[in-house]
Amino acid sequence: MTDLQRRVAAQNAWAIETYHRNLKQFAALERGQFRLEVSQRNHIGLAIRAFLRLEYHRIHQSVPLHDAKQSIIRQAIRLYLLNPSIALSSTA
Question: Under 8 Å CB-to-CB from 73, ≥6 apart: which residues?
Fold first, then answer.
């Protein structure tokens, strides 16, 4: 293996490592506690889909991944507060 081939392989390995780390961190991939195999596959598939949408949003907004996720969450909360579908009773 030449030095150039080694560098390219190292860059590819690092890109894959970064993808997996971000997938676990930002898409809650490890948080699903399921016993059935089909449930695990569904959770992984939906987590990957959510992560790809987050990446798309990040690229088009030109912001870091954490800021992209926060902006999506803030927008969702803002829209819900304008028209809440569930009314919680007071606990005081």
Answer: none
